[in-house]
Amino acid sequence: MNAQELIQKHKLLECIQCGMCTGSCPVSRKANLNIRQYMREVAITGKLVVHPQNELWSCTTCSTCGVRCPKELSPFEFLIDIRSLAVEEGQIAPTMRDALESIFKNGNPWGRIRSKRSEWTQDLDIKHISQGAETLYFVGCTPAYDPRVQEIAKGLVRCFEKAKVDFGILGYEENCCGSEVYGMGEKGLFEFLVEENMKNFNKYNVKRVVTSCPHAFHAFKNRYGKTSFEVQHYTQLLANLIENERLTFSKKLNKKIIYHDPCFLGKQNGIYDEPRKVIESVPGVTLLEFDRSRERSLCCEGGGGRMWIDIPGERLSEIRVRDAVESGAEILTTACPFCLLTLEDAVKTTGLEGKIQVLDVVEVLSLVL
What we know:
It is a single chain. The chain is α/β, with parallel strands linked by helices. The protein is 44% helix and 8% strand. It has three domains: 3-88, Alpha-helical ferredoxin (Fumarate Reductase Iron-sulfur Protein, Chain B, domain 2, Orthogonal Bundle), CATH 1.10.1060.10; 94-240, 3-Layer(aba) Sandwich (Rossmann fold); 250-366, AF0625-like (Rossmann fold, 3-Layer(aba) Sandwich), CATH 3.40.50.10700. The protein has a four-stranded parallel sheet with strand order 2-1-3-4. Strands 6-5-7-8 form a four-stranded parallel sheet, sandwiched between helices. Helix 13 links the parallel strand 3 (208-211) and strand 4.
């Protein structure tokens, strides 16, 4: 893609240079990322410039710039296309390159072999989607392989079983959804994953998909084009099951809980109420709110490939956990595997162990089932 194509695709000449994108970007000050300047350079000079790695790869693709833009542009999408040029030229951190290679070879970014993808199910009775099921539970790479995040997958299975949801999984046939591949600018690999995943969905006549992760939900809903299946994030399904009294609780949890909105669930897709309804349905819980919540939520820095590259400076997740402690919350909860990992890591790096517990929403439910 040349400069003129980028100018037209992203409507760069409509940019009024107000600076709202850079001003609202959560990492702009930390990483010296000036999206407005990036767009201006291309629009005025008609030339493409690949900027330093710490700038280019600092973007988390959280979409705050797009949410705030008065001209309804999507600067982060422009930046993804600039990343594509960098990828083509080999200008990518080795850790990100390794993650992309692992996705191509093994279907996941964590360097784990495909046959281990369903090891987390060994003590559970879960059927394969080929046996027939109304719903495909798309587990995702991180809940399938990461020992900590596997608790999300196991907790969801318990909820599904209690609510008598007819579901199955793809097991070792499951591939990476491609969300972070797209965010890193590897469009060719993303298209390959779309093709492979759609083959599986069509092979098993999948009509309904529920995801553990907002990133997979976003990819299926907004990046895959026209599909033959309906997709839900698990908080949407659980909110519905609770409302219809198919999922009920037998215990109380007298805790103050604060909810962190994942960018790919909230800002990217407008899903704010369902996770809160799920939390508020837990007997005894008091739900608190961050000052920066919903569309103003502070990104954890886990998206856009940032799980595989470290940008120097204070992490936004560290700010987040400090704010959670100051609010008086006992539990900081979220609904995204990446957010869970970054927030838990921030609790350790800020020395706040024992002051706050980080749990996924489904883990909160597991305490009262």
